[in-house]
Amino acid sequence: MIYLTMIIFLQAGKEALFNEFEEFAIPLMSDYSGRVIYRIRPTKESLIACHGPAPYEIHFISFDSEMDFHNFLKDERRKAFMHLKEASIKTTFLVKGKEL
Q1: In the β-sheet with 89-97, what is the strand arrangement from edge to edge?
Q2: CB 4 within 8 A of CB 95
Q3: What CATH number does domain 2-97 carry, 3.90.78.10, 3.20.20.150, 3.30.70.100, 2.130.10.10?
Q4: 7-55 residue pLDDT tens
Q5: pTM for the complete prediction?
């Protein structure tokens, strides 16, 4: 099992494009034993400390294996929607973790 945390920052005004990509990509994860454990859209009030712009969303996801995750990334159906992701995301931090 692998765990990934994605901290996502969007281009200004591109929320609809990003959400369109997510509506397609999130259900596709299940074809590769992937799941969203948490999908958080933080508000200004919910941030305790922030040294820079606030992220649009934070995703905590898991896949049964590293291979499942890589196969999800290579999926041709996902690639057909990548233009939405590329047009909407300014920066993403991806942190790989493991259960302790």
Answers
A1: 34-40, 57-63, 2-10, 89-97
A2: yes
A3: 3.30.70.100
A4: 999 999 999 999 999 999 999 999 999 999 999 999 888 888 888 889 9
A5: 0.88
CA distance linking residue 33 with residue 69, whole number of Å: 8
- Domain limits, the chain: 2-97
Distance CA 8, CA 94 (A): 9
Note the pLDDT of residue 51: 87
Rounded-to-integer distance, Cα 94 and Cα 41, Å: 16
Query: C-alpha 25: how far from its chain's center?
Result: 9
